[in-house]
Amino acid sequence: MSLVAACRAPVRRAVFSASSRRAEFRPNAYRRFTTNGPPPAPKSNTALYAGIAAFTAAAAGYYLYNSDSDASREAATAVKSAAQAGKAAAKFTPTKEDYQKVYNRIAEVLDDAGDYDDGSFGPVVLRLAWHASGTHDKDLGTGGSNFATMRFEPESLHGANAGLHVARAVMEKIKQEYPWISYGDLWTLGGVAAVQEMAGPKIPWRPGRIDGFASDVTPDGRLPDASQGAQHIRDIFYRMGFNDQDIVALIGAHALGRCHSDRSGYEGPWTFSPTTFTNDFYKLLFDEKWVWKKWNGPKQLQDKKTGSLMMLPTDYVLTQDKSFKKYAKAYADDQDLFFKDFSAAFAKLLELGVPPQQFVTAEPWTMKTLEEQKA
Question: C or N terminus of the chain, fewer CB within 10 Å?
C-alpha cells in the first residue's frame, strides 16, 4: 500500500463510519475547506502528502468539533496521523528545543492550581503519567504509554484512575497550545516536569509515542490495588518487567500528593510536604508509629503522633517484607540513592510499551527546569 493510501484509508474509515451516525456532510460545509479552482499540480511527493493531510483534517473537521464521543476521538487520532505524515514528508520535525517549550509550559501550569489540593497540580499530573504507563504487560506486549488509551472509556473510568480527569483536563489545555505533540509524549513529559519541578531528580526522557484508538484500551486490574499485600505488588510490577528494587523505588512517588476519599476511598497525605519530592516517605515509614485508622473508610494506617498522615496497606508492606524492607531502609537513610534509583525506574516506566524504533533519538534527553533556565 502506498503512503498516500495508508494515510487516506484509516481516516476515511474512522471519520465516515463515525459520522454516519450523524447528519451527512453538507456540500456548502465541505466547500468551506476548499480553494477556488483546481489546485496546482504538486511538484513533489512532499506537497502531495501535505495536501492529503490538510484535506483529511478539513473533511473530518465538522464531526470532530461536534462530538465528545470515543468515535470522534478515534477519528481525531486518524486525522492527526495523516497530518503527522504530512509533516514528516515536509521534513517538519520538532526539536529538543520544541519539547523544552512544552516542558516549560507544563511547569508553569503546575503551580497555577489555586486552591486545588496543596496548591499544585504536580502530584496528580505525575499520577497521570504513572497510570498511563503502568498498564504494560511485557508478555502480551500490550498497554503502556504508547497509545495514551486513558483518553477512552472504559479505561478512563477504571477505579484506579479515579480523579485523573483533573490531570487530563490540565494537560488538554497544553495540548491545544502544542497540537503537534502526541498525548503519550505530553502526559509522560508532564510526569517528568512534575518530579523535576518539585525538587526531585532528573528523569531521562525522549519522545516518540503515538496516539492509539479505543480498541487499544487495557483491561481493568493492571494497576496496583492499595488494599493488597506483597504478592499482589510483585504480580503487578513483575508483569511490567520490574524487580523488587524498582518496586520500592517507584512506590516512593508517594512522597508527593494525597489520597481523596471521593476517589480512591482513602484519605490524607503521606508526608508533611506533599509538593516536595524527598525521601520522607521512607523516613516516616520507619520513624513513626503507625496504627490502623478507626473510620468508615477502607483500611489505612495513620501516624499515632499527629493522626494527620496516612499509609496504605501496600505502603506498610515495605516495612514487613524482608526484600522490600532492605531497599526501603536504604532509601530512608540515603536520599541521593533513592533519587538515583527512582530516576532509572521511572524513566523505564515511562517507556513501557513503546517500540524502540519509534523514539526520535537513541539516547534520552535531560530537560532543564525553569530554575535552571533562569541561571
Answer: C
Catalytic hit among 131, 136, 158, 254: 131
Q: Which residues, 6 or more positions from 31, have their beta carbon under 8 angstroms from its beta carbon?
A: none
Q: 211, 177, 167: which is closest to 76 by C-alpha?
A: 211
User: Which has the closest alpha carbon to 53: 109, 3, 102, 97?
Assistant: 3
Closest to 109 (Cα-Cα) out of 185, 176, 184: 176
* pTM for this entry: 0.79
CB proximity list for 319: less than 8 A, separation 6 or greater: 285, 286, 325, 328
290 is catalytic: no
Candidates 130, 187, 205, 270; catalytic one: 270
pLDDT digits (tens, 9 = 90+) for 252-310: 999 999 999 999 999 999 999 999 999 999 999 999 999 999 999 999 999 999 999 99
In the block, residue with C-alpha cell 463515525: 18
Check if the beta carbon of residue 227 is closer than 8 Å to that of residue 299: yes
The model's confidence at residue 70, banded by pLDDT at 50, 70 and 90, is low
Render 77-138 in DSSP notation, one character per residue.
Answer: HHHHHHHHHHHHHTT----HHHHHHHHHHHHHHHT--TTSTTT-SHHHHHHHHHHHHTT-BT
Q: At what angle do helices 70-89 and 3-19 cross, to 10 degrees?
A: 160
Has 260 been annotated as catalytic? no
Phi, psi of 107 (to 5 degrees): -60, -40
User: If you ran DSSP here, which 8-state letter would residue 163 be given?
Assistant: T
Identify the CA nearest to 215 among candidates 147, 139, 158. Answer: 147
